[in-house]
Amino acid sequence: MIEFGGRIVITIICLGLVVVLHEYGHFLMARYLGVRVERFTVGFGPEILGWTSGDTRYSICSVPLGGMVKLAGEFMDERQNKPDEFFSQPWYNRIIIALAGPLVNYVLAFTLFALVAGVWGILQPSDQPVIGDMIAGLPAAQSQLHIGDRIRSINGYPVATWDQMAEVIHRAPDQKLILGVERPNDHVARPAILSISLVPKRDSEHGVGLIGIMPKVDKIKPGLRGSIAAAGRDIKIWTLQPLRYLSQKISHWEGPKELSGPLGIAQMVTKATKEGVSYVIYLIAIISTGLGLFNLFPIPVLDGGHIFLYLIEGIIRRPLNRKVMQVANAVGLSVVLTIFLYASYQDVLRWRLGFWR
What we know:
Largest sheet: 4 strands, antiparallel
Shape: elongated
Helix content: 40-55%
Strand content: 15-25%
């Protein structure tokens, strides 16, 4: 029970951190541009601790999930035409304030990705023809091969690297191959070479031969420049991968069944805590990237939706009609709630089907 409670606390911290820092980005940029911040809140619900500094009320609330920043004149209905109100700012300043939240999420993610790479190292596939893992149901897993085996030759021809070995296998779908395999043995100075035969399975999409093996993965410390480069690659991967996935689902008119809501995120955090601190930090970076990306979608009520509306205002050179803004926000809120409910429903389905066990 204590262990379970600890994971719940870590989940709340992970989710709360990325949301609060997102809001803090809006807060800092608003203050910098001269917009009065009426309230900065950590959590939701009744205030349990609070203080006022200048024009801003700072609150810590009873439900420790997320946070909120309330800007003066943030809604057109409450605007009093004071110079320090949000809607008194030109449209481009409002875009900058809206962009600040997602930007902070990306800065946080980049920093954490670089931290994990620099302190714990990065995983890099070995170029040696050593089996690091096998895929169930494919020829290697059904043969006498073991994880850790080094493939020395194929049909009598020596192979020295993973790529050289893979090229030979890819060229031989449905053909019998005889592998010369060196198996580690602590009790023998020069282990014998075993002869193991198998038939690569033809890949239906590309027509190449596959036996279902993956290389050994080494962990290396890349140094400062390497850590920065690794963080850049991770940011790119975790930004483009969801976009490709969503575009594929949309083009095939399929629902994004892998979409995760709060329950799914909690489960991912729980799994990460079992693996270690570096996994938790890396997951926070992924969540922060996802939150920043999601908020850039051009859906009203999200930052991207506001940016889109303010851009229109800049193009037509006049404020948008209040009714148009209200309808856009209502539609956007409906879309966001639908996404939330759909993701939560998928979480429950995965739980009932035992995918989280």
